[in-house]
C-alpha cells in the first residue's frame, strides 16, 4: 500500500481520501494516513482479519502537508483548511 514510495500516489488514493472525509468527517493526508486507511480498508474487504478481531489504526497527523500537496498538484484533496 505504499503506492510506489514516499509522496507517490494514484488517483484512486485521492478519491478514497476525499470519500473518507465526506463519509466520516476525518481528514487524511496523501503521504501517511491516507495510505494507512486505504490499506486497512482493503484488508478488511479481503477479510484479512479473522472475524471478531480488534483492529486499531492510529491517525498520526500529517495534515500540515495537504495545502502544499494541493498547491503542487492542483487542489486534488477537498480538505485544505489546515
Spell out the blueprint of helices and strands:
Layout: H1 11-24, H2 33-45, H3 66-73
Give a written overview of the molecule.
Helix content is 43%, strand content 0%. The protein is mostly helical. It has one domain. It is elongated and about 40 Å long. The mean pLDDT is 92.
Give a quick set of tags describing it.
0% strand, elongated, single chain, 3 helices, 82 residues
Span between termini: 25 Å
Tell me the series of helices and strands, N- to C-terminal. Answer: HHH
Tally of separate domains = 1
Number of helices: 3
Low-confidence stretches: none
Mean pLDDT equals 92
Looking at the structure, what is the overall shape? elongated
Q: Helical residue percent? A: 40-55%
The largest β sheet comes out as: none
Percent range for β-strand residues = under 5%
Question: What structural category arises from helix and sheet content?
Answer: mainly alpha
Radius of gyration: 13 Å
- How many DSSP E strands? 0
In short:
The chain has helices spanning 11-24, 33-45, 66-73. The protein is mainly alpha-helical and 82 residues long.
Amino acid at each position: 500500500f505504499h503506492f510506489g514510495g514516499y509522496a507517490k500516489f494514484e488517483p484512486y488514493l485521492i478519491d478514497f481520501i476525499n470519500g473518507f472525509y465526506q463519509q466520516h468527517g476525518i481528514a487524511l493526508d496523501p503521504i501517511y494516513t491516507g495510505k494507512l486507511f486505504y490499506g486497512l480498508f482493503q484488508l478488511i474487504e479481503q477479510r484479512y482479519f479473522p472475524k471478531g478481531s480488534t483492529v486499531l489504526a492510529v491517525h498520526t497527523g500529517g495534515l500540515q502537508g495537504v495545502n502544499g500537496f494541493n498547491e503542487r498538484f492542483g487542489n486534488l484533496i477537498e480538505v485544505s483548511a489546515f
